[in-house]
Structures are given as C-alpha cells and as structure tokens.
Design goal:
seven-stranded mixed sheet; 24% helix; alpha/beta; 15 strands; homodimer; Quinone Oxidoreductase, Chain A, domain 1; six-stranded parallel sheet
C-alpha cells in the first residue's frame, strides 16, 4: 500500500514548442495533492508513458484528439495504485492504468481507469505491450495492414514500443519481419532476441540497399512510425498491392516548417498500393480481445516486451527528447520517485 | 472505306525530356507504310489520344508499363479503320481501337485491337468516355473509391477526360459531386452542362475556401488527377474514413527535381483515411461491363462526353503541351489528316 501523498508535482505545458520542446516550454509545479470527489479515484502514479504522439498533442490545431491546453498538466498514459476511492469499482491498493498525465498523483473519474494485474505482467508492461503501444501494433498491423502468411512486413522504429511488437506479431502470423532501427545494438536485439528475419541499421547502413538485400520479394506491408526519408525509400521497394500503415512520422514532428511529404507516393499507383492511417482509440471496444491474445503469447514466451525506464519525474523534459533522437531502446517510461 | 496509304508519318521519341517535352525530344519521320503479316491488321488511324500518362512513358525507370524506347514511335491510344487484314477476325472497313501510336497508319496483331461501332457512339468517344479515360474514371471511382450515396466526391482536372466522367458517375450513384478545374468557362460547364453540384476554379479562386463552402460535410472521396498543392489542400478537408484515389499527378510530371510529396499526408491518420493507387489495365477483364453501362447512360442522356480535337498529326508536340498547361477542355485528341 502506497503512503498517502500530500503534495503533487506536475509538468504543465507552458508554451507551444517550435521545433524540439525546450525546457522553457514546461513549468514544473508543486501543489497540494487533490482529493477525490464523488465517483472519483485518487491514484499514486508509478509509471508515466512517453510517446512520440505527445509532440502532436502540444500543437494547436485540428487533430484526432484535443491539444493539451496551455497551463494544463501534460497528457500521458500512466499506471499507478489507488490511494483512495469514492468509486464503487475501485479500492485503495488496486492497480490501475489511465491517462492521468505527467504528475505524481491524480484524481480521475473511475470510468476513466481500468484495473491491471501485476501478477499477469509487470506494471510497466501495461504501458507497453499490453497498453497503447501494443494495441497500436496489434490493430495497425492486423486490421489495417492485413498481412497474410508469406508476406514481407517491414517496420520502422523497430526497437521502439510499437515496432518491437509489430515485428513479433508479423512472425507469429507467418510473415517475414524486417526491422529498421538505429544502431547495431538494436539491430542485433531485433534479430537475436525477438526473432526478426533481418534488421537494417538506418544510422550506419544504406536503407535502400538493405531493403533490396533483405526483402528480395519486395515489401508487402510497411508499418511506418517515422515518415521522412525512410518512408520515401520504402515506397521504392513496394510489392504489388502493398499496404502502408501510417502510424506516426516521428522524423517530422519537430520540423520548423511543414512536414516532408513522401515524394515517391506515386509508387502507390505503379504498385497498386495503399497508404492508410488509423487511430488506436477507435479500437477501444476490442482492446480486451487483443490484450488477452498478447498476454497469452507473452506467457508462452512468444512475445517479448522491452521497456526503457528513466527514474524520476523531474527528468521528463530530457527523457522526452530521447524519443526524438531515437535513443530509447524499447518502450520509454518514467518511473516516478517513490513508486 | 479509307484509301490505301503508301506513306506513313510518325512521331518518334528522339530524347528523354527534362521538364516539359521540347520539339527536339521528337523526330517526325516519313517512311513507307507497313504491310500486315500473318494474323496482322493494317489500320488507317483517325484519332490519336493525348494523355497525361504519356509524360511518364517518356521517362526511363520502373513504372507500371515499359518506357517508350528511344527511336520508337510514341505510344498512344488510337481509333481507326482497317485497310487490310490478314487476321480472320477483321475485314477492311472495320473500325478498331488500339494502342497504335502517334502515326498515320500502323500494323498490329489482330489480338491487340478491338472492334468499335460508330453507330453506338462517335469514333472519338472510344478514346474518351468509352475508352481508357472512361474506364479509369469508372473503376477508379467505383472500385477504389467505393462511394456510397450521400458521399461528397471531389475530383481535380474535372473538365478533363477522366474528371468529367468521375463527376457524372458520382451523381449517378447518389453522391454530391464537386469539381476542381481551371477557369470560369470550365467551371460553368461542369455545373450547368454536366450537373456537378459545384465547381472550384483553381486558377482564380482559393481552393481551400471553395472546399469549405461546397463540401460542408468535408470530403469522403477525392479522385486525384493532379497532385501537388491541390492534393495537399484537399487533405486538410477530409471526412472521417475518406478515400483518396491516386490516378495521376499532372502538376508534377514536368518537374526538373523530385515530385512534391503531399506534406499533409498525416491527415490520413487524423481522419482514418486511405490513399490508394490503381492502374486501369488491371481492370481489362471488366472493360466490357463498364462500357455497356456507360453506353447505356450516354444513350439515356445521363452521361455526356466532351472531346477537344486538334486537327493534324503534325501538331502533336504542341497539342501535348496543352495538357500540361491545363488548356484542354474535355478529352484531348488529334484528328489525323484525311481521316
């Protein structure tokens, strides 16, 4: 049981960043811990999820989700433990996942939280393979990408939270899995630990040559997390009828100017291919189905989940930049002090 | 019956153009008319189709069809009349459509030609609404775009060969049709003659404002013939689950550098949309089905076809440039001298 906390620290959005978020785009605030109202639950946050999508949430303008308001606590996925509950579904001591933001304690309506079980998987996995990144990989690959056995599936940011799961599911579904990741250590991990057929080190190798070598029958499914030059390169290696899943474009999130569009998009015509976007929240009614299947794979040792844990909420601004430099190895999380 | 021709004039590809095709990229040759061999047919060509896709065929490199070889007669769709036949399926006097190139007379294997009937539609319509552009509109819109009644369908190059058919089929299928075209005359034509709900004059009006005004429920289906800035603008106005049909990108064909990719492609994610390319040749087994339905619509007065006819094969190089300047109004054709 977590001791009751009387003070809360939070990162709030102080300014809308231009380019990479700077320290001055955040304010780190201290305030009394909140108290739960009717049907609300007070949670001590243990882990905070750091996701590329956060960069988009900091911008104004129409997107798939409301921007974070200036002055508001930065939105983030979280897992933690219930300190006090005024909702009949939760009791002190329960573990819960939610979107409680970059802070130490938070109050949420019970309806916004789901219980998680640390005996099934370590708490941090509920922000990783059994959480939003895992759901993103599962539904993006299977529902949007529709791979069939024998297909070649390529995924970028392959050693990241989503990419690691995409490649492993591709293998479980009888596909050839090729990852694109930065650095020899990540590439070795993908092949030796996760069972990818090949990995291409975009920081040191020529991606186009790597695709030629490792995808001799070209690319049937490309799960794109990065956009930019890598997307353009994969477009030159599509197989007839290929499916490109647009999940993210991290290489473009911190541009000062407009993002780089894929110059080679007319390959969609030449190769009778499609490029399709999706938002994982649309699949919420099916999360349980995916989580059960993935938990079973994990239990059977067929699906591994790697997390990259940074200790201390005060390191949030710096940790977030790790994502945009491609320095995280596995799902990037903050472990909150005292959790 | 066309008199036998003893001399043939042809446009051959002399050089691979950089940017817009120049006169020096062509050679205009005179040679004896060919004679048909076994199973071949000699045709006097009446109309030659000028298509944006021709620009791509002039480039080297992998595409959906072989490039035209240097020195070869420029590839083009044609209709004409049989002069002499050594194929059992054709007789002198028959009218035929084929891909016989930019020349006055040509020999082809009978299996490469199809008979057409000038009593059903004027000969030029077999290169237009009952030909490749019509098939492109029909299968691109219905098969790739999958419009449902009530959808808003937007088409660019709307007064061109493909665009005019896309908008009219959209209306026949119970959709709202909005065309993007250059100049008030074309826009008036689309609305007053072809029954489009609205038209946006990209040369004189703000396309984004026009889309806001004429597509209040945003855009469900966008049939893209142009790429570039217009594609980027439509991407900002997509409805949830929109389908973008990639048919062409005429605004980019004559760039010196790489084509402009759609900067706003992440709208595919925000709007859960897809962008899909196709090649009309894949639908060849279903051409007859489409032609029958479209001929019936034409007979019933529900589908109009407009052609823009340039007289004289010697005007081919100049006529082709009309396409890239957006100066054609309807399907652009060359009428061969003496046809």
């Amino acid at each position: 049981m977590t001791p009751v906390t009387s003070v809360n620290h939070a990162f709030r959005l102080a300014a809308r960043p231009v380019g990479l978020p700077k320290d001055s785009d955040w304010s780190f605030t201290e305030e009394p811990a909140p108290e739960p109202g009717d049907d609300e639950v007070l949670v001590k946050i243990h882990y905070i999820s750091l996701d590329p999508a956060m960069r988009g949430w900091m911008n104004e303008g129409r997107s798939y989700i409301r921007p974070v308001d200036l002055g508001a606590v930065m939105r983030a996925g979280t897992v933690g433990q219930v300190i006090a509950s005024r909702h009949p579904g939760f009791s002190a001591g329960d573990y819960v996942a939610g979107t409680q933001g970059v802070q130490e304690v938070a109050v949420s309506p019970g309806g916004h939280l789901i219980k998680v079980d640390p005996r099934v998987a370590p708490l941090e996995v509920y922000l990783s393979t059994l959480g939003m990144p895992g759901m993103t990989a599962y539904f993006g690959l299977l529902d949007v990408g529709q791979p069939v056995p024998g297909d070649t599936v390529v995924v970028s940011a392959a050693a990241g939270a989503v990419g690691q799961v995409v490649g492993q599911i591709a293998k479980l579904k009888g596909c050839r899995a090729v990852g694109i990741a930065g650095g020899p250590e990540k590439c070795r991990y993908l092949v030796e630990e996760l069972g990818f057929d090949a990995a291409i080190d975009y920081k040191n190798d020529n991606v186009r040559a790597g695709l030629k070598e490792h995808c001799p029958d070209r690319v049937n499914v490309y799960f794109d997390n990065v956009g930019g030059e890598i997307l353009d390169t994969v477009l030159t290696r599509l197989a007839r009828g290929a499916r490109i899943i647009i999940c993210g474009s991290i290489s473009q999130y911190n541009n000062d100017g407009p993002p780089r569009g894929p110059s080679n998009y007319m390959a969609l015509l030449v190769d009778r291919a499609r490029m399709q976007g999706f938002v994982v929240f649309d699949y919420m009614p099916r999360y349980a189905e995916a989580a059960l299947e993935m938990a079973r794979w994990m239990y059977e040792g067929k699906l591994k989940s790697r997390e990259d844990v940074v200790e201390g909420i005060e390191r949030f601004p710096e940790a977030l930049l790790k994502l945009f430099r491609g320095e995280n190895f596995g799902k990037l999380l903050i472990k909150v002090n005292g959790a």
